Automatic annotation (TrEMBL):
InterPro entries registered for this protein in UniProt: CcO_II, CcO_II-like_C, COX_ARM, Cupredoxin, CuRO_UO_II, Cyt_c_oxidase_su2_TM_dom, Cyt_c_oxidase_su2_TM_sf, Cyt_o_ubiquinol_oxidase_su2
One Pfam family cited in the UniProt record for this chain: COX2
Cytochrome oxidase subunit II transmembrane region profile domain segment(s): 22-119
Gene name for this UniProt entry: cyoA
Name under which the protein is recorded: Ubiquinol oxidase subunit 2
Domain Cytochrome oxidase subunit II copper A binding, residue spans: 134-246
SUPFAM superfamilies to which the protein is assigned, alphabetical: Cupredoxins, Cytochrome c oxidase subunit II-like, transmembrane region
Entry similarity comment: Belongs to the cytochrome c oxidase subunit 2 family.
Species per Swiss-Prot/TrEMBL record: Comamonas endophytica
Keyword line: Cell membrane, Electron transport, Lipoprotein, Membrane, Oxidoreductase, Palmitate, Respiratory chain, Signal, Transmembrane, Transmembrane helix, Transport
Length: 348
């Protein structure tokens, strides 16, 4: 049987090798990201860790100290079997954790509002405020089975499993999903944001360094989930314009017919670009009415807001049963008063 002295040396060598291997990691993305929003979130992790260590480290040191001081062989240690209370110890034990909880609560409250993903950015990085004349780049994101579709409404293009943006320009993401709940995450850019069918979440972020970064899904959505990744390119303004021009020249057409083929589940889907995109397509995806004859969700909500079936009867449509059938969708939509359908807001 091996003695403890015989295995002590190899054990220390193994531990040292493991620490060296961990230290060789070139980049801990969460703590060293390329985007300002992610950097602020990483700072929060470190601040919370340091505050908790203010309690953890003294407790660990005190544990070793008391174990050493009151060891069996130390006959000079004070022994008081009648001890039951110490006001000083009670103050120390309760005041320090309470102070840390208060500080953490204040930091959490402030950062929750400051880093709200819906809140437009007010700075590019910790040294550069956002100029008043800067317009964010809008990107509409659709989580599919099992791929990502990105619309660039201002540029008139769309891509699959490839995302790009110029450095130091705010990005406004509008995010939805086709079938199942998913999560959009670029660790270098910002935190994870959920994507849900029939709803739109938002994210405001910025990338500060050129490079190619990993984007992924962080919510299990089926057998193709583990390969539901994409590349995010941080480019110069000129490089981004070239990327847009390439998508327009080489890409195909993305309309409702093409989309219905694209939305079918696939795994390891290759990068795909579309240079001619139906400008209303994202709107119909969000409102779940891409197929002809489907009533859009915002239309249903507008009908409910106007009074439901009583409103439809007042418009001369005495429909039996469910008014949201595909057969009646065209008649109901046509009967809506101008502007009624646009009143519904479908966001989370």
């Amino acid at each position: 049987m091996l003695q403890s002295k015989e295995i002590r040396g190899p054990a220390w060598l193994t531990a040292t090798a493991l620490l060296a291997a961990l230290g060789g990691c070139s980049k801990a993305v969460v703590l060293n990201p390329a985007g300002d929003v992610a950097a602020q979130q990483g700072d929060l992790v470190m601040v919370a860790t340091y505050l908790m260590l203010l309690i953890i480290v003294p407790v660990i040191l005190a544990t070793f100290f008391f174990a050493w001081k009151y060891r069996q062989s130390n006959t000079e240690a004070e022994y008081d079997p009648e001890f039951h209370h110490s006001t000083k110890l009670e103050l120390l034990i309760w005041t320090a954790p309470l102070a840390i909880v208060i500080v953490l609560g204040a930091i959490t409250w402030i950062s929750t509002h400051k880093l709200d993903p819906y809140r437009p950015l007010d700075r590019i990085d910790h040294q550069t405020p956002l100029a008043e004349n800067v317009t964010p780049l809008t990107v509409e994101v659709v989580a599919m089975d099992w791929k990502w579709l990105f619309f660039y409404p201002e540029q008139g293009i769309a891509t699959v499993n490839e995302l790009a943006a110029p450095v130091n320009r705010p990005i406004h993401f509008k995010i939805t999903s086709t079938t199942t709940m998913n999560a959009f995450y670029v660790p270098d850019l910002a935190g994870m944001i959920y994507a849900m069918p029939g709803m739109q979440t938002e994210l405001n972020a910025v990338i500060n360094k050129e490079g190619v970064y990993k984007g992924l899904s962080t919510h299990y959505s089926g057998p193709g989930f583990s390969h539901m990744n994409f590349k995010f390119h941080g480019l110069t303004e000129a490089g981004f314009n070239d990327w847009i021009a390439k998508a327009k020249s080489e890409g195909g057409t993305l309309d409702r017919t093409t989309y219905l083929e694209l939305v079918k589940p696939t795994e390891r889907h290759p990068v795909q670009r579309f240079g001619n995109v139906d400008p209303k397509l994202y709107h119909t995806v969000l409102n779940r009415c891409v197929e002809e004859g489907q009533m859009c969700m915002h239309t249903m909500m507008a009908i409910d807001k106007a009074g439901g079936q009583s409103y439809m009867r007042a418009k001369g449509l005495n429909l039996s049963g469910d008014i949201c059938t595909t057969e009646d969708a065209a008649k109901i939509t046509a009967a809506l008063e101008p502007g009624v359908a646009s009143e519904a807001v479908i966001q989370q």
